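Sequence in, structure out. Go.
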Amino acid sequence: MADVVVRDFKDRLDNNRLNEKGQTYPHEGLEVTEERKQELRDKGYTAHVADEANDKEDGEEPKEFPFHKGGGHYLLSNGESVKGKDEAIEAEEKLKAGE
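Output:
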């Protein structure tokens, strides 16, 4: 499972790409070792998010929506990302109602 960026940083192993607070790490297309993930956690740049309701195997979709991605961002069932839990719940209810 991906980690969440909790403090902005430039990744020296990814062409100094800026990773901003709230984004998932690693980004799509970047493969990193568990050691690298742990290094960034230890330095306070990322955090592992454990969410049993939405714990998924690689390639699977989350089981429940809205799915908390971290940093106050939520994924809706249509793939849209929304900031704020209440806003995400409201938007997901509208999707389910067909609005």
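Check: Strands lie at 3-5, 9-11, 17-19, 24-25, 46-48, 67-70, 73-75, 81-83. The chain has two helices and eight strands.
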